[in-house]
């Protein structure tokens, strides 16, 4: 009877100090060890008007009821997330924007607050509807490790749906590493507990790798920026996902200057002709890996693009034989292309044409296995002395292809299109112009011994 009488008291939990009302409430005894506020909850309501004080009291009361209920059932982030999402939907159904209690009291005019209260008249104090309208349901507060898993399964689902299994694996691994570093440095903190100092700690870790006070750097600025960017995106997308997009991001504006970007040096043309295309230079590679290297040198297409070609995009029976580099739209076998500008057609000339005559269905051995391909090719080139310097990698062949086009004075927009770089106007057409592309590329075709294919 005492509890019911208290709930019916219109001035419950209200006290007057001087001329202003305060919210004053005892914390349940069994929860005092869990509620950090101690034995009593005290809040100034900043009003001398009894009606306004009752309205504010109702909101604080609902918030405390929700808090104590969650403490009694234990810490369950998944349950908290479900309660929060349901509260958002209930508030929207009644025509309100869901806001946490503190934001309602600070940001909304009294008329809107009163409308919220009117919407709850006649409802039990423990009603989910009251929780929703009064902003009494606390947002979920997952640990960063859990937030990352939520990011993988829910938040970024649309971003990864078109990636191949290997692309998805590498995409996840990069973000997992960023979070692993964070946890190793400051702990597996709840998202709401991450501070600017925590973010600075991570920033300093990468700074010491990128620009050590002594010794040589073992990481690049782009690596540091990518890792800080992963944490920044995770934080922003997590709070956007739970309905708090305005949450201040502790990782904001923490980056590294990258004025010394290193470009891979190109192979000299005579080195490609005399060393890489020399009979026997690639003989110990398997047929598919060798074919990819040779096609790479004469198309400039990325090894990952070549490795994932299939019969449907290798056109040997056209007037101008060519390959089409495009995403795979098959939902059972998707694959992304790096950028929109990377979708393109490349005429086949010289050794590249001979390679695809031998491999008209592509290179299935390396489909979705570009990391293994890259490791194999770089090891072969290093072992057999096919690098002019220790700064070269197999990928340098792409830069060589571009340089050869520049030196032959091919049109800049044609060069950009063939390389898959962005151009500032509509792309070249097809049809007759494919013939022109072929004729232009014949200016840079390299001689080769058919035996190397």
Automatic annotation (TrEMBL):
SUPFAM superfamilies: DNA breaking-rejoining enzymes
Key words, A-Z: DNA integration, DNA recombination, DNA-binding
InterPro entries: DNA_brk_join_enz, Integrase-like_cat_sf, Tyrosine_recombinase_XerCD
Key word DNA-binding present: yes
GO molecular function, one term: DNA binding
Biological processes, Gene Ontology terms: DNA integration; DNA recombination
Source species, domain of life: Bacteria
Coiled-coil residues: none
UniProt key word DNA-binding: yes
Similarity remark: Belongs to the 'phage' integrase family.
Protein name per UniProt: Phage integrase family protein
Species annotation: Mesorhizobium australicum (strain HAMBI 3006 / LMG 24608 / WSM2073)
């Amino acid at each position: 009877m005492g509890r019911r009488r208290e709930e019916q008291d219109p001035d419950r939990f209200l006290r007057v100090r001087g001329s202003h009302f305060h919210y004053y409430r005892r914390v349940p005894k069994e929860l005092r060890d869990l509620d950090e506020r101690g034995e009593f909850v005290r809040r100034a309501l900043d009003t001398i008007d009894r009606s306004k004080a009752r309205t504010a009291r109702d909101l604080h009361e609902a918030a405390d009821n929700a808090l104590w209920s969650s403490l009694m059932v234990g810490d369950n982030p998944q349950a908290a997330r479900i309660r929060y999402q349901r509260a958002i939907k209930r508030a929207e159904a009644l025509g309100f924007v869901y806001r946490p209690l503190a934001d309602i009291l600070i940001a909304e005019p009294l008329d809107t607050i009163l409308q919220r209260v009117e919407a709850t008249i006649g409802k039990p104090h423990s009603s989910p509807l009251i929780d929703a309208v009064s902003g009494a349901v606390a947002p979920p507060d997952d640990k960063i490790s859990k937030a990352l898993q939520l990011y993988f399964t829910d938040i970024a689902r649309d971003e990864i749906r078109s990636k191949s299994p290997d692309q998805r694996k590498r995409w996840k691994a990069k973000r997992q590493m960023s979070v692993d570093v964070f946890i190793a440095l400051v702990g597996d903190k709840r998202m709401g507990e991450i501070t600017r100092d925590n973010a600075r700690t991570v920033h300093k870790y990468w700074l010491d790798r990128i620009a050590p006070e002594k010794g040589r750097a073992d990481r690049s600025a782009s690596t540091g920026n990518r890792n800080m960017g992963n944490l920044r995106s995770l934080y922003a997308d997590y709070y956007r996902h739970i309905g708090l997009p305005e949450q201040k991001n502790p990782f904001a504006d923490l980056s590294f200057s990258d004025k010394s970007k290193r470009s891979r040096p190109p192979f000299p043309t005579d080195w490609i002709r005399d060393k890489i295309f020399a009979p026997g230079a690639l003989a110990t590679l398997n047929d598919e890996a060798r074919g990819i290297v040779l096609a790479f040198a004469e198309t400039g297409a990325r090894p990952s693009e070549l490795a994932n070609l299939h019969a449907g995009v290798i056109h040997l029976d056209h007037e101008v034989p060519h390959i089409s580099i495009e995403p795979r739209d098959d939902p059972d076998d998707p694959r992304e292309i790096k950028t929109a500008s990377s979708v393109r057609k490349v005429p086949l000339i010289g050794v590249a044409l001979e390679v695809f005559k031998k491999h008209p269905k592509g290179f299935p051995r390396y489909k979705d296995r570009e990391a293994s391909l890259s490791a194999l090719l770089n090891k072969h080139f290093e072992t057999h002395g096919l690098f002019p310097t220790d700064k070269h990698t197999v990928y340098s062949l792409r830069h060589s292809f571009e340089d050869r086009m520049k030196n032959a004075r091919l049109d800049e927009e044609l060069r950009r299109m063939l390389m898959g770089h962005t151009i500032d106007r509509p792309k070249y057409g097809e049809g007759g112009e494919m013939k022109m592309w072929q004729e232009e590329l014949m200016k840079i075709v390299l001689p080769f011994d058919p035996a190397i294919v």
